[in-house]
Design goal:
Oligomer: single chain
Distance between the termini: 58 Å
Radius of gyration: 27 Å
Number of strands: 18
CATH architecture of the largest domain: 3-Layer(aba) Sandwich
Structural class: alpha/beta
Largest sheet: 6 strands, mixed
Strand order of the largest sheet: 3-4-2-1-5-6
Shape: globular
Helix content: 25-40%
CATH class of the largest domain: Alpha Beta
Amino acid sequence: MAKKQIEQTKLFVLDTNVLMHDPSSLFRFEEHDIHLPMVTLEELDNNKKGLTEVARNARQASRNLEEIVGTDLINLEQGCPLSIKGNKHVTGKLFLQTTQVNVELPGLAGSKADNQILGVVLDLHKHYPNRQVVLVSKDINIRIKARALGLAAEDYFNDKVLEDSDLLYSGMKELPANFWEKHSKEMESWQEAGRMFYRITGPLCKTFLSNEFVFYEFEKPFHAIVKSVEGNTAVLEVVRDFTVPKHNVWGIVARNREQNFALNLLMDPEVDFVSLLGQAGTGKTLLTLAAALTQVLDTKTYSEIIMTRVTVPVGEDIGFLPGTEEEKMAPWMGALEDNLDVLNKTDDDAGEWGRAATQDLIRTRIKVKSLNFMRGRTFLHKFLIIDEAQNLTPKQMKTLITRAGPGTKVVCLGNIAQIDTPYLTEGSSGLTYVVDRFKGWEHNGHITLLRGERSRLADFAAEIL
């Protein structure tokens, strides 16, 4: 029985880049066993020095390995159980390479680290003919080499929140044409503080999430936000219409349905975390800044705006930048300047002097901060805007969002189709991670902006190029 059980579980050989990408990957293979070639440990050792994320991960992976292997002299050939440190659900074992492997690799130079790993996989393949031996690596080339040698190879998928970015939560749901027929039987409606509420019961209600927008675009259009869900009953609140000039936000009106939904989230003090996704020109930064300025300067809900972004250059780097933290960040903040120009022009009555005065006032209330100095900070009553959030790793995203103190609102903006950080994909970006993990929380809101409103040229270029 035990032999049959072993034959069913797989033996995964881990490449170094998997451990350096996610040190906790050792505990992610559940009932399957892990085999580490000696060259993997050597590469971990070579990469452990420094302050980079990779070096930190290499050191953490080494610490995890020491805890698994333990200090007692145990027989490594029997394997070390992986069920340590609260990972009781992991029933597999860790095996280390204890013997020298001499395998002839056709057409490959034997001394290269990748080829030594392939040699180990080939050797295990011969030793365990009835067991599935799989190489796990983030390196595409070693996976192609493995397949050329007839060996099974896979990417490490556990860090991916979603396989397909099209499945990412969009923050809104279209209601079918027969929605009211099925859901209006026991409907209640009431008004509270000038807002309209509906309590509806029906089969679709259990699929709703808190703060998700629902819209009905048939004979009587209906746009609402889900306030609470209990079984088959949901409470919907009709959204405020920011498309009309009298409800403008710092002179900005919503130009489409999604922008209207976004402004509802940005202007709601009960929503502490907002994420806006959308391609270039959908109005993410403009809407956020308009809402931030209104709530900092007019309603005084927040004391100031803090803006930060990941400094990943698109082309060649331009070297060191002079000046203070604020001045060094200035070249990265072109988007902020452009949007402030637009917002400053919305006040037609102020005249040139009035606009200049407003601009100076705005400057005193917007702080531009670098991500590098965020550890250990706490922001109280601030409006924190994280621009280009798709370039953040989930760990960096956690560091930033946990800076929020009482009364602080955090807004993440990004376009997951424009990731500039090496090794990050649409599925493993920190932005995808927070959108997926936060959905359904009553103080979270998310919307995917669909229509570009920048110019016909920008829309055409985004679509066709």
